[in-house]
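As the next step, I selected for study a record pairing a protein sequence with its backbone structure tokens, which the following lines show:
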Amino acid sequence: MPLSPPSRGFAHVETWVFDLDNTLYPPACDLFAQVDQRMTAFIGDYLKVEAAEARRIQKDFYVEHGTTLSGLMAVYGLEPAAFLDFVHDIDVSAVMADTALGEAIAKLPGRKLIFTNGSHMHAENVVRQLGIDHVFDGIFDIVATAYEPKPRRRAYERFVEASGIEPARAAMFEDIARNLEVPHALGMTTVWVRPDLPGSERHHQISHEGADGGHVHHITENLGDFLRRDCLAPSAPAE
């Protein structure tokens, strides 16, 4: 049974928009474990609280505000630059080079963009480690959206404004299903890059929430295979 029902094709797409973390590389790399620990450490130092309380604040803000950073900015007036620099200062060596993915992305007709809630520095580090930094035409990070994170509609509107894309002729690839709601509403073709089954805590479950909604047009567990099968050869039968 195919993972991707033929709800929409890709022949009309001229801009390909990719989330970064757990989309361009598999969740098994677990880069976020490092980011997660550094967020907790930053909050503990910034708010002068114990690690357990820092982690509670961190996860509550992620659920309520879309990102931990947005919560810190809204509630505590945090200046974001130091936070982004600190939490993304991580070891990306667990990410293996993926030349096949790079070749598949390079063959897509039109522009290829990264749109991430992370920092530009983090995105550059990751795609360089993947060996695919040369295939992208631009990176749009949380700074480019004036710190409005996905899934807020304003984040996507600012991305569209900054990139000049035509949403109706764009496709969006994301590992968090709810982050595809606004792209769908704007007219993009959406692809959920499904991660592993979530844990029991709410912040683990968010990536799967709403995945059965009409805003998810296609589903895959392997981005490279999907691009080769459904985007580069749209007339080929699904596996």
Observations:
- The first strand starts at residue 15 and ends at 18.
- The beta strands are 15-18, 111-115, 138-140, 170-174, 189-193, 218-220.
- The two ends are 8 Å apart (CA to CA).
- Residues 15-26+94-231 form a domain with the Rossmann fold fold (CATH 3.40.50.1000).
